[in-house]
Amino acid sequence: MTGYKFETLSLIPATWAETSRDYIENREDLVVNNHAQYCSVVRTGIGKSKLILGGEVDALWDAKPSRVDDPINWVELKTAATPLSDRDVLKYERKLLKFWIQSFLLGVPKIIVGFRSKDGILQSLEELETNQIPKLVKHKGKGSWDGNLCINFTANFLDCQSSPSVSASRFSWDADKTIQGLKSTIVEDGVWRIRKKEKATVIEVFKIEKSGHGDILCQDFLTWRLRPEQGHDP
What we know:
Order of helices and strands: HHEEEEHEEHHEHEEH
Number of helices: 7
Structural class: alpha+beta
């Protein structure tokens, strides 16, 4: 079973009471759609750095709250092979790191994992509280990663300001060498990319567009943002 099929079988387009019995009972026959999604946009901080993050989220546990200031009960759906050996457990534990980081940063409180057989058959479900995953790995797993270490590493990467270079268009960051970080590198307009290649020991940061916003912001928002009454300079 693919992740998209798992989502199709697990989700309905509205609350239970608002969804027809016919739709609920015939979800197995639905064509998989990987375009339908929510987007969570959050303002958060790591260390001394303030961030605005946006990312795709799979579902709501119930319904969106009527008050905009109330938290949203987001849910992320994941699939993984059923662990059959110590090696499989370690592999799953490393997957949990990715699951945790994604949901932690976007404010998703719950993750549901569907375990599948080698033939892709769904065998079991596990419901995880996002904020409990590091503790689960540390005390009940093999301790292959540490959540606090991940957060501290990220804070250092974002805030490191030694060896500033205003004209830098590309740099590689190595935690052991403590060279320049984001705040001393991204000092001019443009669209930048942060990349860590598989098995690489450094993180690359480089500019991919000299100006603009990478189509992250829609034109309607930019028009509103730059209106004189909003008090922002064009």
